[in-house]
Amino acid sequence: MADAEPPILERNMSTILCRMLYSPSGWGYTPTSWLSILGPRIQPGQTSVNVAANLVAVGYANLCGYNTKTNVLQLGFLPDPVPARLAMCMMDEDFEYTADFSKQVGKGRPNRWWAMRLTDIFSSGLVSPDNGNVGEVVVALYLLFCGDLLRKRFNNKDVPENGYKRFSVCLDAWLQLLQNGGKDSCLVDIGESNVSVGFIQVCQNDLRSYDRSWTSLANTSFLEHVYRSGVTRILPDI
Fold first, then answer.
1. Confidence class of residue 215 from pLDDT cuts 50, 70 and 90?
2. What is the mean pLDDT of residues 136-142?
3. Which residues, other chains included, contact 12 with Cβ-Cβ below 8 Å and sequence gap of 6+?
4. Which of 2, 30, 43, 128 has the highest CB neighbour number within 10 Å of its CB?
5. pLDDT tens digits, residue range 4-25?
6. Which of 4, 19, 38, 7 is nearest to 99 (CA)?
């Protein structure tokens, strides 16, 4: 009996990832490709017209605003678990993929490597965080990395071929990592828990269908939406 054909999303993962990498042949070692991978997870900020135009044209970035005086575009990555999950996979040095059309094999990189690439794109001026808030972006990446470590343990232990298809992790274990510098030696038990955390990307709270304030956290429909999407949000100052 022939194997069942994989779902359409699975069949297109390689194409989606290569598009995110801004390179038709696979992995791209360019600042633009770094931004294209980091963007869906942490929303780096503003960039030049040329960079934004390329990422909007061939990647998954969105144009959110334009300053005519500075010629700077506000670049945004909408809540989407598909590119966010693939970006998460690329932040694991054990992850591999094969581009369907070129058969080129690419590998992910460790989270420390990605942290350095974030430093590079900020220090070079390629991207400027909103209101100059570099700390907010760095903290968001740290929160994600701690969750990634737990997701990798779970997925590799039970369903290694799935490649990070379960987002939620034990809240207690995640908090242990946050408080201990992301060192997994601090973990005692990462088994199942009644309370979990499941975001794989951090986005601005710009949904027009929801109240842009802290009151949205009291909306059960909103909380269910962001949980199922693997999203957490930076709320505006009020």
1. low
2. 90
3. none
4. 43
5. 555 666 777 777 887 888 654 4
6. 19
- Find the mean pLDDT for residues 125-139: 80
What's the DSSP call for residue 132? G
Match 């030696």 to its residue by tokens: 185
Both tokens assigned to 211: 């109240």
Q: Which distant-in-sequence residues (6+ apart) come within 8 Å of 214 by Cβ?
A: 235, 238
Instruction: From residue 216, give the alpha-carbon distance in Å to each of 84, 181, 195, 207, 211.
Output: 23, 30, 20, 11, 6
- Residue 230's φ and ψ, nearest 5 degrees, are 70, 35
How many CB atoms are located within 10 Å of the residue 220 CB? 8
Domain ranges of the chain: 8-234
CA distances to 19, 20, 81, 116, 227 from 14, in Å: 9, 10, 15, 25, 26
Of 51 and 187, the one with more pLDDT: 51
Instruction: Identify the three-state secondary structure at position 231.
Output: strand
Element (H, E) at 23: none
Cα–Cα distance for residue pair 63/129, rounded to 1 Å: 15
> Tokens representing 167?
């987002």
User: pLDDT digit string (tens) for 143-165?
Assistant: 999 999 888 887 665 444 446 77
Phi, psi at residue 203, to the nearest 5°? Answer: -130, 160
**Spatial distance between the Cα atoms of 46 and 147, rounded to a whole number of angstroms:** 26
Which tokens go with 225?
A: 């939406």
Q: What is the DSSP letter of 185?
A: G
Amino acid found at 145: F
